[in-house]
Every structure is written in structure tokens, then in C-alpha cells.
Amino acid sequence: MFDPHRVANDYDFREVFAKQVCALGRPGDLAWGISTSGNSANVVRRARAARGRGLKTLALSGGDGGPVAAAAALALTVPSRNTPRVQEVHITIGHVLCDLVDYLALPGEIRSPLRPCRAGAPPAHEQPGAAVPHFLLRNYWSVS
Questions:
Q1: Which has the minimum average pLDDT: 65-74, 115-124, 125-134?
Q2: Nearest residue to 31 via CA among 63, 3, 60
């Protein structure tokens, strides 16, 4: 079992997430780091460790992105230094990304939390008021 408290105590808090990636990450996995300021050293080290091990890296950051955004292959930066606003946008992005994973991994199974899957229902992105943003799928995830 991975225990981040032991890593922080025995090594350095900046190594907590990097050690986790080294222990559990495999090439092709996604290492997803979040930093409101974009300056969290432990998130930067995780992204660097992940890239070095062949993982895909995604950073959610605020402000100008900082070192966290620079360390990841893909960075989604909220251009604000207002902590609550950055965190609210990060939460929304997290929900959208989780919905996209469900949509892509389970086609025909997942519709929307508000519209349960039912026989003969159109795909979620074709339903009125769709929760799955089809433009994201088409433009960023290369799904036709």
C-alpha cells in the first residue's frame, strides 16, 4: 500500500506524488496534477517523474500556469489568481473529463447523470441539453 505520509516523513513532501508515480504508474497511464497557483513543487516533480516513465501528463493550474503547466504535456490553465474561482473551474473541468472518460469507455452505456440510459435513447451528445460537450470530443479527443 502506498502511504504518502511515510514518503513525506522519510523523504521530502516534494516527493510525495513523484514516489507514487514511480510505484504505481505505467507507460500510457495518465498522471493528472492540480495546482491552484501553478507553483506546487510536489506536483511539478510528479509531472516530471511521470513523463520520464512514459506516462501522459495533464496539469490543471491557475494564474499564468507556472512551473506545473510547463512540466506537463497538456496544461489547462485558469487565467486567474482568485483561488476560489480557479478551484471552481478545476472542479468543473474534472467533472467534464470524468464524463468524457465514461462516454468514451462505455459507449451506449453512459448518458448523463440527469438522463439515465434507456433502450433506444440517442447518444448523450444528441440529446437536448446534452451534458457531454460534443465539441470537446470532436476537437480535442479526435472522436468522430
A1: 125-134
A2: 60
Cell of 92: 468543473
Give residue 69's identity as a one-letter amino acid code. A
What own/partner pairs with CB < 8 Å and gap ≥ 24 does 104-112 have? 104/137, 104/141, 104/143
Structural domains in the chain plus CATH codes: 1-81 (3.40.50.10490), 82-144 (no CATH)
Cα dist from 13 to 16, 34, 41, whole Å = 5, 16, 9
In whole angstroms, what is the distance from residue 78 CA to residue 13 CA? 25
Q: Give the sheet arrangement for strand 74-78, strand by strand.
A: 30-35, 56-62, 74-78
How many Å apart are CA 120 and CA 102, to the nearest integer?
19
pLDDT grade, residue 5 (50/70/90)?
low
Phi, psi of 17 (to 5 degrees): -80, -35
